[in-house]
Structures are given as structure tokens and as C-alpha cells.
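Ring-cleaving dioxygenase
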Amino acid sequence: MELKGIHHVSALTAKADENYHFYTNVLGLRLVKKSVSQEDSSVYHLFYGDRKGSPGTELTFIEYPLAPQNDEGTNSISAISLRVPNDQALVYWKQRFEKLKIAHEEIKNRAGRSTLAFKDFEGQRLILVSDEKNEGVQGGIPWEKSSIPKEYGIIGLGPVKLTVRDAELTAGLLTDVMGFRKKGQYSSESGSQPDILVFETGDGGTGAEIHLEKRTDLPLERPGRGSVHHVAFRVETEDELHEWTNRINVAKIENTGIIDRFYFHSLYFREPNGILFEISNDGPGFEVDEHINHLGETLSLPPFLEPKREQIEAKLKPLNTKAE
């Protein structure tokens, strides 16, 4: 009954084609699955990750073409971190961002690690974090056909930052129900707000942390393109997922029950400030319906949507993701 770390993070985009270009050609991630939202099969759901989309490396995007621009604020997932091997990798990325004219900050220390904050073309808040001092959850293996040199490549998801109005309630859920441990804290970049609290689970380290920020000087976030939909935490087996369902029920937290996502199974619930949490197991993974050499090249549908393939494809704007 211990969460192993971050499983995946899912965000919103309005432009699947530009999203695909940015996260593969600019950031060098591999598209490991091109599918559709299981709640709305008229829109794409794109999954990026390491060479095989290992749990802990998956960054996913659901496309809503008419989504307004995200209006940043509280009760939100306010930053996604992506792990790189070492401090020198951040120097490479800073030079790359300058060359490509991608909005970014200077390299700076956050929670004892070197980091580089930047934004994608829709204002998605991202932070590269160095694994040079990491002693916890191990990262993934970059795709060998990535446009980024392996020694600088992104190796997984790092700490996820939550910005909330009431940090005590969220902290209570993390520690009392979900088994996180308080690890430390660091100064808020706002200058006038409380320190950001660091919580870890499992083996700890870069891939197993939540950073909790209390802000009373911001409005509630109004999500749109450039916002984050949810964060998922990792367990290995479906049996563990059933145990977590029981624990969440005992805590009297409203939840979805276990949902079959085909590539893994998931349990959804909201923390006290309304942020959507998910717990997901590891399998069967993205190779269940595609060979590892051809992940993400064609539209993959879960079995319950396969009979509707013709109608689904007719509604989708073509998106060429075949490797050249």
C-alpha cells in the first residue's frame, strides 16, 4: 500500500498537430500512442514518453480545438516537471530554447535541484529538473531515434506542483490517506506567500514528489488550453489498485471506482481543493496493441471503440505521426 511515484500527467491542448511537433521535434519525446479521449472520441488523446512509454515517463494531451486560453490561478496543477540526466543537460536545453525562441527562465535552484522553467506554444508551464543528485525513483530510457542527444534527453516526469487556496487540507490527504511523507520546503517565488512544501512517496526522489504551494493572492484558475487536467500516481498491480479503492472508500472520498483504460486501469477522485487525482497500475502498457518499433504511428482504439473506428476517424483531423 505504497504509491511508487508519478505515473503520468494529462494536460489540455487546442492543436494536436502543433502539440505533436513541439513534444517530439522540440523536446525529443516519443509519441507512444495516438488514440482518442474515451469520454469524447471526437478528439485526440496523445501519449508521449520514453522509448516505450514506461510508467513515470508519460505526458499526455487531450485535444479540445475550441478550448479558450488557460487563465492561471489556484486550485490547479500549476507546473509539470520533466527530468533530465544532469546539470549539464540544462545548459544544453537553455541554449536550445534560445535558438528556437522558446520562452524560458534562467537556470535556478528549486528544492535543492537545478531547474529550468519554460513554456510551450500554448503557455503550458513546464520545468526541466536535473537528476544529478537523484537517489530515488529511476528515470526511463530516451528513444534512440529522438532528435535530442541521449546524454541530454528527457528521462521522465519530475515533481508535480499543486497551487491551492487551502494547503492544510491537501497536505492532510497526501499524508494521512495517500501515504506521502513531508520531505522539506523551499521559498515561494511570489515573495509574499508561504514556503512551498515538498512531499514524497515510495523510494522518493525526482519522480515521486508533489510540491504544494499555498496562494491567497490569486483567483481560481479557469482551465483551458495550456492547463493540466490531472496527475496520476503509480501502483504496480491491479490488486494494489483494488486495495487503494478500498482505502479511498474508507476515507469516504467520492471516486469513480476502477476504470479500464485498456493500457492500464485507473481510479479517479478529487483532493479537497478540487484537483483531479488518479491512481493507475503499470500494465499492460502501450505494446499491447502495437509493436514497440511502431508505437504511435497509427490510430489506436480500445476494444470497446474499435467497432466505431470508421465513424471516429471521419471526425478527426488527419494527423501524420509515422516515423520518417
